[in-house]
Amino acid sequence: MTIDTPGTDQEAAALAALGSRVLAEAGHGDMIWGHLAVRDPAGRGVWMKASGWGLEEIDQDRVLLVSWDGERLAGGEGLPDGGRVHLEYHIHTEVLRARPDAQVSLHTHSGTVNAFASLGEPLRPLSHDAVAFAEHGLPTFGATANLIRTPELGRALAADLGPARACLMPQHGLLTVGRDIAHAVMYAVLLERACGLQLTALAAGGPKRWTGHRESLEKDALVWSAGQIEAGWDYWVRRTERPAQR
Ligand SMILES: [Zn+2]
Questions:
Q1: How far is the CA of 56 from the centre of ligand 1 (A)?
Q2: What is the 3-state secondary structure (H, E, C) of 61-116?
Q3: Containing H/E element for 177?
Q4: Is residue 64 assigned to a domain?
Q5: Dihedral angle, C-alpha 113, 116, 193, 48, nearest 10 °
């Protein structure tokens, strides 16, 4: 199932649930932590998973509509605890407030990205993956390595993100945004792969060569066109929803 632009509450909740499961399938799970948010089509806030569940456990019934001020407006009625809002909802409310071009934001605790961020190295395009971050760079959040537990920290994160597609959050994780769920999720997948590849090259004593800025921009336009991003997302959806192997 692919819903590019949710029109109803049910579609927005289904999309947030699907994106959560895809992130888990792509290796971004951290027990019950990390989350993805879909902008509410009616402008009331964001749809995101309830606290206390792993990304792979999320279906529509475990998705909440969270107001811009962190109030649970809908969802979670059938859950044992009524549906708790993640403490770090400020990431999504403040970033999506600051980025009207983005419909989806996500935050995971990727170990690979944290290992890369600990080195303080610029991300180099060693394959196709990192060229997705050539145009706007890959900023680093600097205010804290602790949880994004206040609107002020959410705004600081949004400020460091600026117009970029992704932001490192050293000793914590990553943030990506997208004009739709395909872009936001694929940027997280590409960022983790790019960081992992550079870690491999660094461990081998390199890297010594990488794609220059101009060609990176050319590659981004071709390799990560909207059609390619959507094709990658569709692949992850198929992989996530494949029948269990018997
Ligand atoms: Zn976090």
A1: 17
A2: HHEEEEECCCCEEECCCCCCCCCCCCCCHHHHHHHHHHCCCCCEEEEECCHHHHHH
A3: strand 173-178
A4: yes
A5: 10
Read off the CATH number of the domain in which 127 is found: 3.40.225.10
| Segments forming the whole domain that contains residue 43 | 9-237
User: At residue 113, does pLDDT exceed 70?
Assistant: yes
187/183 Cα distance (integer angstroms): 6
Has residue 106 been placed in a domain?
A: yes
Residue-wise pLDDT for 122-145, tens only, equals 999 999 999 999 999 999 999 999
pLDDT of residue 1: 43
| Cα(108) to centroid(ligand 1), Å | 6
Angle at which helices 151-161 and 89-98 cross, to 10°: 50
What are the pLDDT digits (tens) for 183-218? 999 999 999 999 999 999 999 999 999 999 999 999
How much distance in Å is there from the Cα of 137 to the middle of ligand 1?
22
What is the distance in A from the centroid of ligand 1 to the CA of 212?
32
Rounded to the nearest whole angstrom, what is the distance from the C-alpha of residue 211 to the centroid of ligand 1? 32
Better pLDDT: 3 or 102: 102
User: How many domains would you assign to the chain?
Assistant: 1
Question: Tens digits of per-residue pLDDT, 78-104?
Answer: 999 999 999 999 999 999 999 999 999
- pLDDT-above-90 percentage for the chain: 95
Q: What element of type H or E holds 154? A: helix 151-161
Asked if the structure places residue 91 within a domain, the reply is: yes
Asked if residue 2 is part of any domain, the answer here is no
